């Protein structure tokens, strides 16, 4: 197997649309990314749901895919296992090193690169059949800029997928108080409520970027059964599928 080595594009890392504290937060936990019982347990548990949702709307096999904000590579690897040609980008050296090492260990070929979404969009505009940006928009200063970059990365007719957290009292109760303090599913301080994004705000950013909304789904967690499910309740976590016009 020929594995493409981790790359770093100097011009691509100098982006104003990054919160250094957010990068530091996830970098400190990077070595635990692939431990299914670690702070990243929720990501491991929701991944099969989001993977099937993406694959049902845009079959992955043989497609050129980019995962924006790939972190340690949980979604990127699962898409590569579906025979997609996957690129993962992020700005955390530690997370990318973990992702790269894990793909080498599992023998899965993925191109990982340290580069900002906006810089990647300038360099490889209109290149990808599928663009994913999951659990990232609520961690950047300017989510609209990321949405626009994802649009640029997609080919005409390509599909773009986002997931994030709604901003309302229920979302604060469940995603911050419940997940971080009561159930302790996530480290305290993982989320900043002020950065949460309502479906209306994200839909406006999507339309402004020139994308069309295809589908919006909610994702819920039942603390009794400890099972996640996709449904129509977008009051806390939600996912949006978009299409780039031909």
UniProtKB/TrEMBL annotation:
One of its GO terms (biological process) is methylation. Signal peptide: none annotated. Residues 1-19 have a biased composition (Polar residues). Pfam families: Methyltransf_23. The keyword Lyase does not apply. CDD domains: AdoMet_MTases (cd02440). This is Ubiquinone biosynthesis O-methyltransferase. Its EC number is 2.1.1.222, 2.1.1.64. O-methyltransferase that catalyzes the 2 O-methylation steps in the ubiquinone biosynthetic pathway. It comes from the Bacteria. It catalyses: a 3-demethylubiquinol + S-adenosyl-L-methionine = a ubiquinol + S-adenosyl-L-homocysteine + H(+); a 3-(all-trans-polyprenyl)benzene-1,2-diol + S-adenosyl-L-methionine = a 2-methoxy-6-(all-trans-polyprenyl)phenol + S-adenosyl-L-homocysteine + H(+). Belongs to the methyltransferase superfamily. UbiG/COQ3 family. Pathway: Cofactor biosynthesis; ubiquinone biosynthesis. The gene is ubiG.
